[in-house]
């Protein structure tokens, strides 16, 4: 699985870090601890990132979903 952030060029480095960690399922408290920030700073960075209009896309290979396989023989 890959996570793609579209519009990432609009985000600051810290905003990119916070968004990526949040999309990986980390809580704001976990992000704050990992990046050595306060929880309020994490909330502010997430808010700023959202106002800049990024979009997160999860890229999954088709075989991981079991929908692409060998063609059935007729």
UniProtKB/TrEMBL annotation:
Species this chain originates from: Metallumcola ferriviriculae
MF-aspect GO terms: DNA binding; sigma factor activity
GO biological process terms held by the UniProt record: DNA-templated transcription initiation
Domain HTH luxR-type: 25-52
Pfam families assigned to the protein according to its UniProt record, in alphabetical order: Sigma70_r4_2 (PF08281)
UniProt xrefs under PROSITE patterns: HTH_LUXR_1 (PS00622)
Superkingdom, taxonomy of origin: Bacteria
Protein name: LuxR C-terminal-related transcriptional regulator
